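WARN retry 2 of 3 for item q-0093 after timeout on previous attempt; input resubmitted unchanged.
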Amino acid sequence: MIQIHTLKQKTHAINTEIYALYLSYRDNRVKWYVRMLLAFAIGYAISPIDLVPDLVAVFGFLDDVVVVALGFHFSYHLLSKNVVGQAKLQAFEELNNSSASMAAAAYRIVGYAWMLALAIVLVLLYKFTTLTLF
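OK item q-0093 returned
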């Protein structure tokens, strides 16, 4: 029984960290490139779409761990401690008060992340197709 309680606590801590990163993303003091990294990491963490499908034996889960861990690691190092601290406090308070709105927030985050990724791909495609070599 203790193991289930510990697992629930760790799951709640991870959810709080992910939501704190989302709140950090929304902060105006965060630079644009950190926002892009956060959007990608959070979107990839909660998105059902993967680079390598989970059906592939080891690599399907390994890419999830590597991409999300690196995205969160670099995001934490690029964010100021003040922004992260305030976001963690706000995330902890909001998650303890209501959990029903978290599902809606998660779907919004995934949608925004994929729209951002699509916009970046479209801009890059436009740049490469209109690039003149001579």
